[in-house]
Design brief:
With 268 residues, this protein is an alpha/beta fold. The protein has a single domain, classed as TIM Barrel (Alpha-Beta Barrel). 43% of the residues lie in helices and 15% in strands. It is built from 12 helices and 8 strands. An 8-stranded parallel beta sheet has the order 7-6-5-4-3-2-1-8. Helix 1 runs parallel beside helix 2 and helix 7 crosses helix 9. The radius of gyration is 17 Å and the shape is globular.
């Protein structure tokens, strides 16, 4: 990896939780308690209706607002959908693509995920690409094959210079909201695999730059061990991001784990 550490990133995925008024109160608390935090980027990926309140309220330097989904077309007859241009106009910088719940519940294929990822890059946003296996796939021993295929398909048509602006989140589907928890070794092994796949396809420079998050139920209790792994650069946090105390504890663990204090990768 070299001597320079990648800057840690903690992203909260609120899913379908919190109203705009609740968002305002929550972000005000984050502002107060994260004032002056350095060495870690914080992203809150909120429901569409909460985005204006989150953007208006976020004042701490380390807090950025993200979306949980977007359509791959810039505009058109897509009832109920949101484009990257709309998100940008609201002040959104990050967007989650390929989350397991979108794949499972809304039929998003690797082809659709690729379209969304390229649209996000084209719209000067930072995509958080989610990859991961089910318990059946893990038990069949196809985790490595599946993860490499998901990355290959999702990053089809993407140039090496663009990879540094992509965040990849490993989310073992079997450890999300099931009560099951991946071990630190499980997470370390797959995150290292992801970096190796990026190296094979895009080269060593891209592999050194890309930030890889763990997204399988990271919480205040297991964050320290996970964030100590050299190939885990942060977390995509679900339920724990809805509690200010727990979310901030995870951010504090990321700061303690260290990282590059330089300015994060810009959204051009």
């Amino acid at each position: 990896m070299g001597t320079k550490k990648r800057r840690k990133l903690i992203a909260g995925n609120w899913k379908m939780n919190k109203t705009p008024s609740q968002t305002k109160v929550f972000v005000e608390e984050l502002n107060r308690r994260l004032e002056g935090v350095r060495g870690c980027d914080t992203v809150i990926c909120v429901p569409f209706v909460d985005i204006p309140a989150a953007v208006r309220t976020a004042k701490a330097r380390c807090i950025t607002v993200g979306a949980q989904n977007m359509h791959h077309e810039p505009s058109g007859a897509y009832t109920g959908e949101i484009s990257s241009q709309m998100l940008q106009d609201l002040g959104v910088k990050y967007v989650i693509v390929g989350h397991s719940e979108r794949r499972r519940d809304f039929g998003e294929t690797d082809v659709i995920v690729n379209k969304k990822l390229r649209a996000a890059l084209g719209g000067n946003m930072i995509p958080i690409l989610c990859v991961g296996e089910s318990i059946e796939q893990r038990e069949r021993g196809v985790t490595e094959e599946l993860i490499c295929l998901q990355i290959k398909e999702a990053l089809s048509g993407v140039e090496a210079r663009q990879v540094r602006r992509i965040v990849i989140a490993y989310e073992p589907i079997w450890a999300i909201g099931t009560g099951m928890t991946a071990t630190v070794e499980d997470a370390r092994e797959v995150c290292a695999l992801i970096r190796a796949q990026i190296r094979r396809v895009f080269g060593a420079a891209a592999a050194r730059s890309v930030r890889i998050l763990y997204g399988g139920s990271m919480n205040a209790k297991n964050a320290k061990g996970l964030l100590a792994c050299p190939d885990i650069d942060g977390g995509l946090i679900g339920g724990a991001s809805l509690s200010a105390d727990e979310f901030i504890t995870i951010i504090e663990e990321a700061v303690q784990a260290g990282g590059d204090d330089e300015k994060p990768v810009p959204v051009e």
